Amino acid sequence: NNPFWVSSDGLSCALCPDPVASPTETSTYIVRVDSDFGCEIFDTITINILTQDDIDAGDDIAVCGGTPAQLTGFGEGIPSWTPAATLNQTDIFNPLATPTETTTYHFLLENGDCILTDSMTVEIIEKTEIDLLDQSICKGEAVIMQPIGIADTYLWSPPEGLSSLDIENPTANPTETTEYTVIAQSGTCPPDTASAFVEVLENPTLNVAGIYRYFPGDPKVLDVTSLGSGDYAYQWSPANGLSCTDCPNPTATIDVTMDYTVIITDLETGCSHSEIVIVQKVDECSEDLISMPNAFSPNGDGNNDTYQMYSGTIEEIEYFRVLDRWGSLVFESNDRYFAWDGKYNNKTVAEGVYIYVLAGKCKLDGSTIMKMGDITVHK
Q1: What pTM did the predictor assign?
Q2: 222, 260 in Cβ contact below 8 A?
Q3: Using one digit for the tens of pLDDT, what is the confidence trace for 308-322?
Q4: What angle do CA 229, 230, 234 make, to 5 degrees?
């Protein structure tokens, strides 16, 4: 008695037993009736609306002549495929197709009053055709190999730097420029071979002290230079206390010890390198204020050819001396910015270990700081 459709959107009437529903999306309707004894009774009915998204005939496929192609239909309902001549079945979702020429298959789904259709093509090819493009990466990075063409099996070489040798898209992470080759085959087609280089670009390098020490109240210039030629961008973080964040030599004016990160980017290659720079507040004089390398190679190659002191707090030295293992003096200077070229009497000294002694003036209280250690000379 007294039917009433509680949810009546899309219904032709709300106070009738048999309204016509015209929903635009899947909808659930609720009806209420009264029993002869005055009880309220509820029931629901759902109308499912199907769209083109509810059917998929699968992706197009390319196979060699004589090779079966597995079709992969998807959806809900009763399936049927045409044309039937080259299909092993037409009333299942995943029939096997054996066309002798390129064929478009039509997939139909019947679900209630709704009939949806979609199609896909099986292309017949005569041979495997594959191509591979050269790629570039920065040292330490990886790239996904992306062969162009259609194949079922792949074999890559050489194995160095590859995540897998028998998949379509292995990840390549070579340490140096490498030529990779792939042999690919589609079905029973003759295989094809393609090669390409993965070029490994060098990351920029920095000449920067790991620790910059400063006395209270003194600004500190963070002297960073690139060891290569080119056009570079610099980025410092955090910005606290820095005169600039996009320059190679910002001045830090701070009252505490800070850790900064500097990133240098080669604008031509896009490759980057980062370093952590510690700016440390100094409250007492010690030999830790002086940083001395333990080796250098005075061979004229433009890299690490001279030996010098690194200190942002020592502005004056009394002397710097280098002795051979017999105690003979081979170099001496009282210039704060000395740079020993590894020569004694205009000749480069022999490879080996030498001793250095340095006396520097501490700006904090004027005391003398002594530091000594080993220097290894390489050729």
Answers
A1: 0.55
A2: yes
A3: 987 767 888 999 999
A4: 110
Backbone angles phi, psi at 170, to 5 degrees: -70, 160
What tokens does 338 get?
């000395």
Q: What is the DSSP-derived secondary structure letter of residue 242?
A: B
Rounded to an integer, what is the distance from CA 167 to the centroid of its chain? Answer: 20
Q: DSSP string of 245-257? A: SSSSSPEE--SS-
187: nearest Cα among 154, 149, 148, 152: 152
Q: Which candidate, 133, 128, 198, 195, places its Cα nearest to that of 161?
A: 198
Please, is 299 exposed, middle or buried when counting C-beta atoms within 10 Å of its C-beta (0-12, 13-18, 19+)?
A: middle
Q: What is the number of alpha carbons within 13 Å of residue 228 lying toward its C-beta?
A: 18
User: Residue 8 in 3-state DSSP?
Assistant: coil
Strands (E), 112-257: 114-125, 130-131, 135-138, 143-144, 148-149, 153-157, 171-172, 178-185, 192-201, 206-207, 211-214, 220-221, 225-226, 232-237, 251-252
Q: What would the pLDDT profile of 133-180 be if each residue is shown by its tens digit?
A: 999 999 999 999 999 988 889 999 999 999 999 999 999 999 999 999
- Any residues with CB less than 8 A from the CB of 300 and at least 6 apart, and which? none
